[in-house]
Amino acid sequence: MAIKLYDLCSADKNSRFSPACWRTRMALAHKGLEVETVPTLFSEIRSIEGGGQTTVPVIADGDTVMRESFDIAVFLERAYPELPSLFRGEGGIRTSQFMHWWTNATVDSQIARFCILDIYNGLDEKDKSYFRQSRETRFKRPLEQVQDRSEEAVVRFRESLLPLRLTISKQDFIGGDVPIYADYCIFGSFQWGRMVSDFAFLETDDPVAKWFERCLDLFDGLGRNAKV
Amino acid sequence: MAIKLYDLCSADKNSRFSPACWRTRMALAHKGLEVETVPTLFSEIRSIEGGGQTTVPVIADGDTVMRESFDIAVFLERAYPELPSLFRGEGGIRTSQFMHWWTNATVDSQIARFCILDIYNGLDEKDKSYFRQSRETRFKRPLEQVQDRSEEAVVRFRESLLPLRLTISKQDFIGGDVPIYADYCIFGSFQWGRMVSDFAFLETDDPVAKWFERCLDLFDGLGRNAKV
Predict the structure, then answer these.
(1) What's the pLDDT score for residue B227?
(2) Could you tell me which residue ranges the GST N-terminal domain spans (chains A, B) (predicted)?
(3) What pLDDT does A184 receive?
(4) Residues of A near B (CB-CB distance < 8 A)?
(5) Chain mean position to CA B1
(6) Which residues of chain B have pLDDT under 70?
(7) The domain at A3-79 falls in which architecture?
(8) Domain A90-222, second-level architecture
(9) Half-sphere exposure of B25 (CA within 13 A, CB side)
(10) How far is A181 from chain B (nearest CA, A)?
(11) Does residue A18 register a pLDDT over 80?
């Protein structure tokens, strides 16, 4: 039976843009598990699987309901140890937890500032007031003032990617020859930006951009084919 | 036979302050390997083990000479698989490489700016001109203008530690209940600051400061006892 993935969508139900949901989508593909994605609006999250959820991704694997992208990845690793490993050992889980926080604190926070109006404009009408209110509370200013594509912001973003750039400059993936969960974790953030916006965060000759292109090609172009 | 560790020292040969050497020192202790440290001035690095070295740490394990802290840790893991694991699996090695670069790019670069004059003042007279020249080339200004302990710089430093803070707020070490190489990698940077300076980078109630205190206690206080 396919694993259900409640997957955030915009007004176009085929546009799945959540960075956290992309982490889970890629993790499921890495494991080769069959998935049924359920397009989910922000305003529908509270009614998922009988209620009680506040964020996506949420997966339902038979009777097991799990949330939080990192916890889902660890669940999949332990529930399906015979399928290709996401973490390649317990140490990989521990250090990937750090990389999860690095991605949130460093990558997501900056991409949000580049794209927040694009995200807002793409949302279903039912989600717009929730999104505006929650994000304006978080950033303490109107969405129109959150978005910042100044050269200074772009340069700072590119500089902050140095640890990733140094890691993947001489190898295809963070995992070496093959991707691991840490790749999907960071990929999710760039795919988020790609799904909602045409803004160019990266220079095309940046090793990070080339790594992202390799990730887009994985699993028969799962990431690349999501946007036409 | 003990493994030789060529360990950077200041004018006081007992003061070992290199962040990279501390990574190796802790990795050797984690493996429970016997070590003989060789105090080494900057100006002595080129004559280590017959010449050809440009940086420390360098280790000599019998006939095998290795350099670069990360490569040394991987070497120790593979050469002594029966001793306590530094990485807990291949995935841990891959993601720890990212954390090595994060530590260099984020932690070391900022601690250098807090402490560079303290480092300089503690050096042996034979090392001072090399240090001044190489660091002034790197930072493109006099040492006296590199050092920056402004409140803005301190706040930015503390904020940049968020991924580490989130990781160790609910567990003792990045490795969970037990430390792994990723802990030693970042520990080395804070120990560097502690060895050369009394400047308080961290607030004492910061979870990062508490994690650092736990690291200082490891291996019968190996880190703590290095400074009296």
Answers:
(1) 81
(2) 15-82
(3) 98
(4) 85, 87-99, 101-102, 104-106, 162-164, 166-167, 174-176, 180, 182
(5) 25
(6) none
(7) 3-Layer(aba) Sandwich (3.40)
(8) Up-down Bundle (1.20)
(9) 29
(10) 9
(11) yes
